[in-house]
Amino acid sequence: MAARTSSQKARQISDYPYPLGRYRGARKVAAVALVIAAISYCGWLAGWIFDWQIMANKQAFMSELSALSRPHSGIFRVLDFQAGLSSLVAGFIIWSISRRAVRRRGLALIFFGIFTILDCLFPMSCSPQLEVGCSATLFDLSRPFTDTVHEITSSLAQIAILWALAVTAWDRKELPGRRAVALVGVGINAAVAIAAIIPNAPVGAWQQPAILFWAANLLLWAGQISGPDYRRVQ
């Protein structure tokens, strides 16, 4: 029994190679960046004020708020850029100071940040659901080049979200509550990915709660990296 206890203690010490106070500054920066990313990525809620037609259309992607032809589209591109940049910063810090599944989550955040920034740099030219003559066909090469790039980067950002959530949901060192929220996020974001390839599917109705659950996970991760239990899962 004594030998087993000593072995367990040794294993625990090796799991936590440095004291909690180390990297405190970096962890606070990552936590703040995650909070900013969560709030900014929910900027689509302002669409009910600035572009309610898209918000009320259950088949419209939230990216259509940022389409060049839409009023106030610059507001939503700035918010998405801020969300992407903040996620990139947080992901790099988490990837640099963490281990195991949390490190893979950091890598997923890095990719999410990169592809979200590219979404802003290559916005849609128009809203397929609201504007006559705006093609809604996936990867229609007859449309402007930016539309095709936007579809690719949006798809890759969605994959990065699913990756980060799946890593958290299947991480046995995570708290049950965080795993449950991540698992629900996996299910809803998977539904969005499936709805995106089904004609006339209510993708917008699924995307809105999917974004909210993604933002909730970002906030939970912010609390985790800045809290006392971070050593348990790093």
TrEMBL record:
The chain crosses the membrane at residues 29-54, 74-95, 107-130, 150-168, 180-199, 205-222. InterPro entries: DUF998 (IPR009339). Keywords: Membrane, Transmembrane, Transmembrane helix. It holds the Pfam family DUF998. This is DUF998 domain-containing protein. It comes from Boudabousia tangfeifanii.
